[in-house]
């Protein structure tokens, strides 16, 4: 049981570290170096060998997991940051009334990439929308990690990457 806990802790620590460091190619190089160093653990004596073979591959896997998630889930929406674009989207949630209109969760098609989960704010009277509807609209897109100049992770925790 301690072995599994050690590997899980190492994986989790790498994921946490990768969240607070800038994204880039360093993640792949670091993961490759850790994997190569773990092979050196094969030539060490028993107690140290087990620790090396548990810790280093788990850290490498955590870094690779985070990099892959960023590339598959977050990166497709980055092309829309700060732009005003005409897009198509599929409604994934029910509209919720706000002080200025409504908001609704949608999956925006990014043109070839994976659809990006987006929180769409509609000012004025909101149309009757239901999950599964396909809509076309023009919107100004912002990353969901900053609201009113302050950094937040609450939308990212829900899988929403665009506003």
Describe the structure.
The protein is an alpha+beta fold. The protein is 44% helix and 23% strand. The protein is built from 4 helices and 7 strands. Strands 1, 2, 3, 4 and 5 form a 5-stranded antiparallel beta sheet that branches. The chain has a two-stranded antiparallel ribbon with strand order 6-7. Helix 1 (2-20) runs parallel beside helix 3 (46-78) and helix 2 (26-40) runs antiparallel to helix 3. The mean pLDDT is 84.
From the structure above, extract its key features.
44% helix; 23% strand; 163 residues; single chain; alpha+beta
Q: Sketch the major β-sheet.
A: 5 strands, antiparallel
Q: How many beta-strand elements?
A: 7
Strand content range: 15-25%
**What's the helical proportion of residues?**
40-55%
Total helical elements:
4
Radius of gyration, rounded? 21 Å
Set out the fold topology.
Layout (H helix, E strand, L loop, with lengths): L1 H19 L5 H15 L5 H33 L5 E8 L4 E2 L3 E8 L7 E8 L10 E7 L5 E2 L2 E2 L2 H4 L6
Antiparallel strand pairs: 1-3, 1-5, 2-3, 3-4, 6-7
Task: Explain briefly what this protein structure is.
This protein is of the alpha+beta class. Strands 1, 2, 3, 4 and 5 form a five-stranded antiparallel sheet that branches. It has a two-stranded antiparallel ribbon with strand order 6-7. Helix 1 (2-20) packs parallel to helix 3 and helix 2 (26-40) runs antiparallel to helix 3.
């Amino acid at each position: 049981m301690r072995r599994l806990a050690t590997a899980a802790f190492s994986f989790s620590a790498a994921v946490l570290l990768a969240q607070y460091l800038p994204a880039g190619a360093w993640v792949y190089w670091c993961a490759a170096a850790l994997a190569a160093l773990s092979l050196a653990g094969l030539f060490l004596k028993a107690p140290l060998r087990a620790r090396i073979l548990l810790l280093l591959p788990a850290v490498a896997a955590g870094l690779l997991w985070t990099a892959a998630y960023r590339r598959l889930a977050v990166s497709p929406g980055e092309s829309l940051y700060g732009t005003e674009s005409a897009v198509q989207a599929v409604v994934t949630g029910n509209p919720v009334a706000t002080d200025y209109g409504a908001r609704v969760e949608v999956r925006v098609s990014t043109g070839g990439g994976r659809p990006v989960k987006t929180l769409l704010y509609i000012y004025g009277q909101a149309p009757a929308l239901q999950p599964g509807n396909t809509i076309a609209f023009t919107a100004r897109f912002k990353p969901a990690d900053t609201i009113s100049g302050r950094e937040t992770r609450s939308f990212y925790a829900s899988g929403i990457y665009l506003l």
